[in-house]
Design goal:
The chain has 145 residues and is of the alpha+beta class. It is built from 3 helices and 5 strands; from the N terminus they run H-E-E-E-H-E-E-H. The protein has one domain: HIT-like (HIT family, subunit A).
């Protein structure tokens, strides 16, 4: 059963500024972090005011975990990483969101976390279009309108 979503949901401006919208799953908005160094998805449950995973109902927690699992499998199939990192921190952006990051031995941050490492390398228009197309196909999402 798909939970009904509150129309008061607003994406944190920092997440919006740092990413491309992939699309909408049953519970979450899926974003692609605009940094080619790290294939990186962010899932944001479309509920206003959430800060913690524990603020979701048990059903919504299971739905979010299913969506993270789906996103991780698709990202893994596309990026073929050495390791997948999945995390929910919220120290800088308090809005509840989960990171799904494909990592490679020897990437710009390896083996440390990706946060605060170097300068982002934004996707070109052609590359973002290509990657977004692959992600949307893998997640069975419609193109953004």
């Amino acid at each position: 059963m798909t939970p009904s979503l509150d129309t008061a949901f607003v994406l944190d401006p920092r997440l919006a500024n740092d990413s491309h919208v992939v699309g909408e799953l049953a519970l979450s908005r899926v974003l692609l972090m605009n940094d080619m160094r790290f294939p990186w998805l962010i899932l944001v449950p479309r509920r206003p005011g959430l800060r913690e995973l524990t603020e979701l109902s048990r059903e919504e927690q299971r739905q979010l975990l299913d969506e993270v699992n789906q996103a991780a499998h698709v990202l893994h199939a596309i990026a073929k990483p050495d390791k997948m990192n999945i995390a929910a921190l919220g120290n800088v952006v308090p809005q509840l969101h989960l990171h799904v990051i494909a990592r490679y031995v020897g990437d710009a941050a390896w083996p440390r976390p990706v946060w605060g490492v170097g300068v982002a390398d934004p996707y070109t228009a052609a590359e973002s279009s290509r990657v977004l197309g692959l992600l949307r196909a893998g997640l069975s999402l419609s193109p953004e309108t």
